[in-house]
Amino acid sequence: MAAPKGNAFWKQRSKHGRDKLFESSTKLWNAACEYFAWCDENPWMKVEQLKKPVVVEDNEGNEVVESLAHLPTARPYSLGALCLYLNCNTAFFRQFKKSLKKTDKDFSTVISRIEDIISTQQWEGATVGAYNSNIISRTLGLADNQNIKHDGIPETPAAKQVMIFNGQKIEF
């Protein structure tokens, strides 16, 4: 059943729109710090094949031959993972950043700081070899980009072969 025309039911709402994700820049900063701490405390476990199997004891005291090693590897910070942690998406985060007014300097400062921490951690991790440098350079927009335009006409003429036959010069 549709509402009658000219109704004003919308005026009876107690609030309009959704709640702010963060009421203050301090709460945003604290949530980002929680995410960074979680990343540091929960490294990726890289699995590598051992060159020589090792005999170890399992939880029940039985000897087991292990051929795989689980190595902790640093977890890179990312804006996408931060947004998942904050229960929003990257489009919302970028729109929130874009819609900040000049009076919201605290939020602007915190968001810039968060983005700087993420890019610095990724760049430093790629520099020391903890992360794949090709992937991180593309993520940070540092990819080597060469645009080569070609109109089909060679810049230098093709080399000609010359043959002298019975005193005559023949080019091909």
Largest beta-sheet characterization: 2 strands, antiparallel
**How many strand units?**
4
CATH architecture of the domain at 21-43 and 74-141: Orthogonal Bundle
Query: What is the N-to-C succession of helices and strands?
Result: HEEHHHHEE
- Portion of residues in beta strands equals 15-25%
Pairing-aware structural class of the strands and helices?
Answer: alpha+beta
End-to-end separation in angstroms reads 87 Å
Give me the CATH fold name of the domain at 21-43 and 74-141.
Answer: Topoisomerase I, Chain A, domain 4
Low-confidence stretches: none
Mean pLDDT equals 81
Polypeptide structure, described:
With 172 residues, this protein is an alpha+beta fold. It has a domain at 21-43 and 74-141: Topoisomerase I, Chain A, domain 4 (Orthogonal Bundle). The model has no long low-confidence stretch (mean pLDDT 81). The strands form two sheets. It has a two-stranded antiparallel ribbon with strand order 1-2. Strands 3-4 form a two-stranded antiparallel sheet. The chain contains five helices and four strands, in the order H-E-E-H-H-H-H-E-E. It has helices spanning 25-41, 79-86, 90-98, 105-127, 133-139; strands spanning 44-57, 63-73, 162-165, 168-171. The radius of gyration is 31 Å and the shape is flat.
